[in-house]
Amino acid sequence: MASKNKVVFEDFFPSMVEKLGTQGFMDELCNGFRVLMDGEKGVITLESLKRNSAELGLGGMSDDELRSMLEEGDLDGDGSLNQMEFCVLMFRLSPELMKGSRRWLEQMLN
Protein backbone atom coordinates (compact mmCIF):
# COMPACT_ATOMS: atom_id res chain seq x y z
CA MET A 1 0.00 0.00 0.00
CA ALA A 2 1.79 3.10 -1.21
CA SER A 3 1.06 6.55 0.03
CA LYS A 4 1.13 9.73 -2.05
CA ASN A 5 4.91 10.01 -1.64
CA LYS A 6 5.39 6.36 -2.70
CA VAL A 7 6.64 5.18 0.71
CA VAL A 8 5.34 1.73 1.56
CA PHE A 9 4.29 1.42 5.19
CA GLU A 10 5.99 -1.91 5.85
CA ASP A 11 9.36 -0.34 5.04
CA PHE A 12 9.16 1.32 8.43
CA PHE A 13 8.79 -1.90 10.41
CA PRO A 14 12.49 -2.84 10.66
CA SER A 15 13.40 0.67 11.79
CA MET A 16 10.54 0.59 14.29
CA VAL A 17 11.91 -2.66 15.74
CA GLU A 18 15.36 -1.11 15.94
CA LYS A 19 14.03 2.02 17.64
CA LEU A 20 11.39 0.46 19.91
CA GLY A 21 12.93 -2.94 20.55
CA THR A 22 11.08 -6.20 20.17
CA GLN A 23 8.63 -5.66 23.01
CA GLY A 24 7.95 -2.04 22.06
CA PHE A 25 7.22 -3.02 18.48
CA MET A 26 4.86 -5.79 19.61
CA ASP A 27 3.11 -3.29 21.86
CA GLU A 28 2.63 -0.99 18.86
CA LEU A 29 1.23 -3.85 16.76
CA CYS A 30 -1.20 -4.63 19.57
CA ASN A 31 -2.20 -0.95 19.75
CA GLY A 32 -2.83 -0.96 15.99
CA PHE A 33 -4.99 -4.04 16.36
CA ARG A 34 -7.03 -2.42 19.15
CA VAL A 35 -7.56 0.72 17.05
CA LEU A 36 -8.98 -1.34 14.16
CA MET A 37 -10.95 -3.99 16.05
CA ASP A 38 -14.66 -4.15 16.81
CA GLY A 39 -14.76 -3.53 20.54
CA GLU A 40 -17.68 -5.88 21.12
CA LYS A 41 -16.39 -8.77 19.00
CA GLY A 42 -12.68 -8.43 19.81
CA VAL A 43 -11.67 -8.93 16.15
CA ILE A 44 -11.16 -6.74 13.09
CA THR A 45 -14.22 -6.94 10.85
CA LEU A 46 -14.83 -5.21 7.54
CA GLU A 47 -17.12 -2.78 9.32
CA SER A 48 -14.60 -1.96 12.07
CA LEU A 49 -11.82 -1.65 9.49
CA LYS A 50 -13.92 0.81 7.45
CA ARG A 51 -14.88 2.75 10.56
CA ASN A 52 -11.39 2.99 12.09
CA SER A 53 -8.95 2.80 9.19
CA ALA A 54 -8.77 6.59 8.70
CA GLU A 55 -6.95 6.82 12.05
CA LEU A 56 -4.09 4.83 10.50
CA GLY A 57 -4.01 6.74 7.22
CA LEU A 58 -6.09 4.19 5.29
CA GLY A 59 -9.21 6.31 4.93
CA GLY A 60 -9.09 6.53 1.13
CA MET A 61 -9.26 2.78 0.56
CA SER A 62 -12.26 1.24 -1.18
CA ASP A 63 -14.38 -1.50 0.35
CA ASP A 64 -12.82 -3.97 -2.09
CA GLU A 65 -9.31 -3.00 -0.98
CA LEU A 66 -10.25 -3.31 2.69
CA ARG A 67 -11.94 -6.65 2.03
CA SER A 68 -8.79 -7.86 0.26
CA MET A 69 -6.72 -6.90 3.30
CA LEU A 70 -9.01 -8.94 5.53
CA GLU A 71 -8.94 -11.90 3.18
CA GLU A 72 -5.13 -11.76 2.97
CA GLY A 73 -4.78 -12.16 6.72
CA ASP A 74 -7.81 -14.33 7.52
CA LEU A 75 -6.10 -17.64 8.23
CA ASP A 76 -9.12 -19.43 9.72
CA GLY A 77 -11.63 -18.23 7.11
CA ASP A 78 -14.06 -16.64 9.55
CA GLY A 79 -14.15 -13.28 7.69
CA SER A 80 -12.34 -11.34 10.41
CA LEU A 81 -8.86 -10.95 11.88
CA ASN A 82 -8.00 -11.92 15.41
CA GLN A 83 -4.89 -10.44 17.01
CA MET A 84 -2.61 -13.30 15.95
CA GLU A 85 -3.80 -13.13 12.32
CA PHE A 86 -3.25 -9.37 12.32
CA CYS A 87 0.33 -9.71 13.59
CA VAL A 88 1.10 -12.53 11.14
CA LEU A 89 -0.22 -10.36 8.31
CA MET A 90 1.96 -7.44 9.38
CA PHE A 91 5.01 -9.71 9.33
CA ARG A 92 4.10 -11.09 5.91
CA LEU A 93 3.80 -7.57 4.53
CA SER A 94 7.33 -6.70 5.65
CA PRO A 95 9.98 -8.67 3.75
CA GLU A 96 12.73 -7.36 6.04
CA LEU A 97 10.94 -8.60 9.14
CA MET A 98 10.32 -11.95 7.48
CA LYS A 99 14.06 -12.43 6.99
CA GLY A 100 14.65 -12.37 10.72
CA SER A 101 11.22 -13.46 11.88
CA ARG A 102 12.19 -16.85 13.28
CA ARG A 103 14.74 -15.38 15.66
CA TRP A 104 12.43 -12.47 16.42
CA LEU A 105 9.44 -14.74 17.14
CA GLU A 106 11.59 -16.92 19.39
CA GLN A 107 12.54 -13.81 21.37
CA MET A 108 8.88 -12.81 21.70
CA LEU A 109 7.81 -16.24 22.92
CA ASN A 110 10.53 -16.48 25.59
Automatic annotation (TrEMBL):
Residue ranges occupied by any EF-hand domain in the UniProt entry: 61-96
Pfam families according to UniProt: EF-hand_8 (PF13833)
GO MF: calcium ion binding
InterPro entries: EF-hand-dom_pair, EF_Hand_1_Ca_BS, EF_hand_dom, KIC/PBP1/KRP1
Domain of life, per lineage: Eukaryota
Keyword field: Calcium
Protein name: EF-hand domain-containing protein
Species this protein is from: Escallonia rubra
